Automatic annotation (TrEMBL):
Involved in targeting and insertion of nascent membrane proteins into the cytoplasmic membrane. Acts as a receptor for the complex formed by the signal recognition particle (SRP) and the ribosome-nascent chain (RNC). Interaction with SRP-RNC leads to the transfer of the RNC complex to the Sec translocase for insertion into the membrane, the hydrolysis of GTP by both Ffh and FtsY, and the dissociation of the SRP-FtsY complex into the individual components. Residues 97-248 form the AAA+ ATPase domain. The keyword Nucleotide-binding applies. This is Signal recognition particle receptor FtsY. It comes from Stakelama pacifica. Coiled coil: none annotated. Keywords: Cell membrane, Cytoplasm, GTP-binding, Hydrolase, Membrane, Nucleotide-binding, Receptor. It comes from the Bacteria.
Length: 298
């Protein structure tokens, strides 16, 4: 999976390499600083990160005798600093049970797969896990979650297509409480094209949860597809507005991802990044390691 992670950040690190090659860290005039700043933005790292690196270079805070490596080290350090602040695994609290994790995101982002991966992860930590098929809008979503639940052996609460999502969630919490479930992971519809309806549906789910347990949902995890680049950023914006977001999982950080966007998101929103997806299998969810990712990028 390390190789897959490398490929997920390849576009970002290749652009960096291509743009920084031949630059001499010994002579950083304004024009060169502009070029470096542009290179960082073109690598999806975002304007804030680019600005910070530029400032540090302009202030001479780097090793000048190492050619472009001196510049890359500054990038790596700044990226790691930003990422270290957001790298936080999802934690299961001792109380109350079940801990309810609402999973949101647009269709195709990898939501269902991520739910299965998280369920598997918590199972391995000896927690009793349950999933709820709250994306009642798509029959395929219900079927897919059922298939995953069967494959990894977790109970699922599901209803018919077109059913009431909040009702499913209500049933799931009841059942989870009855059988002593530690973690309940809830799938939700990802219809961003109908923002009003989505917002109402999520609000209703929240109301139902809140009535059963004032602290629920404990986590609202937004799943983002890293191959969509800057699009992922606007999804954070919208979902923060319609649902509130407590943390992120970024998927598809293998293959042709634009991994740099993760840095941009971290810098801009500061939301915890709980884990990253590096493949389609249930154990392809990795903890998010700031140092590792920073070294891969720069
Ligand atoms: P949903 O519509 O958001 O529920 O998305 P799915 O979970 O159905 O995932 C959409 C597609 O992305 C499926 O083909 C998944 O196998 C694939 N997928 C999900 N996560 C990853 C990942 O981390 N890496 C790769 N390469 N594919 C993924």
């Amino acid at each position: 999976w390390h190789d897959r992670l490398l490929s997920g950040f390849k576009r970002t690190s290749d652009r960096l390499t291509g743009n920084l090659v031949g630059l001499s860290a010994a002579r950083l005039d304004e024009e060169t600083l502009d070029e470096i700043e542009e290179a960082l933005i073109a690598s999806d790292l975002g304007p804030e990160m680019a600005g910070r690196v530029r400032k540090r270079l302009a202030a001479g805070q780097y090793e000048r005798n190492m050619e472009e490596l001196g510049i890359r080290l500054v990038v790596a350090e700044e990226v790691e600093k930003t990422l270290a602040q957001v790298a936080k695994p999802l934690e299961i609290e001792a109380f109350p049970r079940p801990q309810v994790i609402l999973v949101i995101g647009v269709n195709g982002s990898g939501k269902t797969t991520t739910i299965a991966k998280l369920a598997h992860l918590f199972q391995e930590q000896d927690y009793a896990v349950m999933v709820a098929a709250g994306d009642t809008f798509r029959a395929a979503a219900i079927g897919q979650l059922k298939t995953w639940a069967e494959r990894i052996g977790v109970p699922i609460v599901a209803g018919p297509e077109g059913g009431d999502a909040a009702g499913i969630v209500y049933d799931a919490v009841k059942k989870a409480t009855e059988i002593g479930t530690d973690v309940l992971i809830v799938d939700t519809a990802g219809r961003l094209q109908n923002k009003r309806e989505l917002m109402d549906e999520l609000a209703k789910i929240r109301r139902v949860l809140g009535r059963l347990n004032p602290e629920a949902p404990h986590d609202v995890v937004l799943v983002l597809d890293a191959t969509t680049g800057q699009n992922a950023l606007s999804q954070i914006e919208v979902f923060k507005e319609v649902a509130g977001v407590t943390g992120l999982v970024m998927t598809k950080l293998d293959g042709t991802a634009r991994g740099g966007v993760l840095v941009n998101a971290a810098e801009k929103y500061g939301l915890p990044i709980h884990a990253i997806g590096v493949g389609e299998q249930v154990d392809d969810l990795r903890p998010f390691d700031a140092n590792e990712v920073a070294r891969i990028i720069a």
